[in-house]
Structures are given as C-alpha cells and as structure tokens.
Amino acid sequence: MSGQETFGTRLRRAMDERGPLCVGIDPHASLLSAWGLNDDIAGLERFTGTVVEALAGSVAVFKPQSAFFERFGSRGVAVLEKAVAELRSAGALVVMDAKRGDIGSTMAAYAETFLHKDSPLFSDALTVSPYLGYGSLKPAVDLARENGAGLFVLALTSNPEGAEVQHAVRGDGRTVAATILGHLAAENAGETPLGSFGAVVGATLGDLSAYDLAVNGPLLAPGIGAQGATSADLPAVFGAAVRNVVPNVSRGVLRHGPDVMGLREAAERFAGEIRVAVEGA
Ligand SMILES: O=c1ccn([C@@H]2O[C@H](COP(=O)(O)O)[C@@H](O)[C@H]2O)c(=O)[nH]1
Q1: CA 4 to ligand 1 center in whole angstroms
Q2: Is residue 99 annotated as a catalytic residue, yes or no?
C-alpha cells in the first residue's frame, strides 16, 4: 500500500466529524410509489438524486443497496455510479451493499468492480459474504488494502434466519460467527485509529456478550427502524464495542421523503438518538 489513507482512518474521522449514522439508499418499489414516483428509471433517478441532495453534505456514511439499482439493469447501475461519485465528492463515505462472495478467482473480479480505484463503482467499502470460506475473500482483502478501501463481512446478520448458519458450532467448539470475528481481528491487528475490515452485526440481535466484538474494526449495524431495533438498543447489543458501531437506517429515514427537509429532519433525529445512546454508554 502506498502511503494513502486507509478506510479505517477515513471512517473514524468521518464518524468524529459527522457522527456514525449510515443512511441506506434502498429504492424499494413501495418507497418510489409512496414518493409519488413511477417504478422506472426516471423514478429511481429522482429518488436517488433527492437523497443525495438532502443528506450528502451532512451524513458520514451511505450504504446504497445495489439490488435495488441492479433490478433496472445497466441504466440502474448508471444511476448507482452517479450517486457513488456525488456522495464521495460531497465528503461522505460509501459502503456498497452488494454482499458479494464466491470462489477466489471470481471474487477477484467482484473486487475489481467495487474496490479498484479505476472502477466507476469504486466504493470506500463493500459488504461481502464469507460463507464460501473466509479465505475465499482474500482477493477482496488484498485489493481493498491496495486501494485504501475496506470490507464489511457478514458475521451476525440482522435477520432471524441467519442464526442457523452463524451460530452453528464448529468442530473446535467455536461458532461460525466467532470464527469470522477472529479473522477480522487478525486483519486489523495493530491498525490505528481503526482497522478497515469490519463486521456486519445486526442491531436486532439482543445480548451478544457471548461474542468478542473487539475486532479493532467497524461494526456495521443494520436493523434500526423498519426491522424493529432502536438507537437505544445499541449499548446493550454492542457493549464496549459501541464506539466502533456504524448504525444503518434505510427505510426509517427514506419514508420521510420526498421532502428534502423531511429527510434531513429524520436523519438528524436518528443521529441525535444515536449520539445520546453512544455517549451515555
Ligand atoms: O444483516 C443485514 C445485512 C444487511 N442488511 C441491509 O441493510 C438494509 C436495512 O434496511 P432497513 O430498511 O433499515 O431495514 C437493507 O439494505 C438490508 O439489505 C440488513 O438489513 N441486515
């Protein structure tokens, strides 16, 4: 790596300056309709542009959900590319939620797509799935390091179905999720102020004291708002790791559009609740 700032360094600074809230950009068909937009490319463009206009200058992190753009084909991906560029040039960080995961040789191509500086979809970080084996992610880990980017690895997801895989106990007595967290701690060893290799850990999960969340990396926490978790739950779920949590809210903010002020007020409300929860912890 060439003296460039790491994702962990940029993220820590963004969290300090703007607060840790991550707003998800999830253009569900139902949200497009609620905003009075058609479920087509023009609706997608208007929706995405409104979120960027309202929040890019004040929110630290955005998490576009790639699926909602991909469903419109290449024109949807073009809208996503534009949003990524605009968000980053406004000083926000972009975590692309594409949840990629495949055998190493294919993983290398996914990594080129999202983690190579010359790609139009280059993002500060990418969500990835370790369920083809953590080692299959190596091309993404390597390219992220080379380009000052990061990863968020699915460890303990917010959905109830995740438990049958993630809580499964291996031959050595450790759970699958604990093993993934262990790999991340190793990636981040010695990094300051924060490593670049984070975990996805749902805010919906209740007491996680059985897990060592001290991976010296960020913990992306979806589940606040539409999935039922609240900002006030964060200290109980994350314990001492709460200061490394990047809480994601998607529909909970987006349902306040298309009014730009409505979106801003909703994001500020969540940001304030998160601040109170984290500082009081
Ligand atoms: O464990 C996970 C991993 C990712 N997600 C994604 O986060 C958002 C949540 O949206 P809300 O509208 O705030 O519920 C969405 O893009 C999911 O795909 C998750 O929910 N849980």
Answers
A1: 30
A2: yes
Q: Domains in the chain, ordered, with CATH?
A: 7-228+243-279 (3.20.20.70)
Residue 2 confidence class, pLDDT cut points 50, 70, 90: low
- Between β-strands 245-249 and 22-25, what pairing exists: parallel, antiparallel or unpaired? parallel
Supply the pTM of this predicted model. 0.98
What's the pLDDT score for residue 1?
A: 47
Q: How far is CA 129 from CA 18, 104, 261, in A?
A: 28, 12, 36
ipTM: 0.99
Please spell the DSSP secondary structure of 64-114, one letter per residue. EBHHHHHTTTHHHHHHHHHHHHHHHHTT-EEEEEEEE---HHHHHHHHHHH
Residue with tokens 């939620």, as numbered in its chain: 97
Would you say 75 and 41 are in contact if contact means Cβ atoms under 8 Å apart? yes
Taking phi over 0 as left and psi of -120 to 50 as alpha, with beta for the rest, 193 belongs to alpha
Atom 13 of ligand 1: nearest residue by CA position: 250
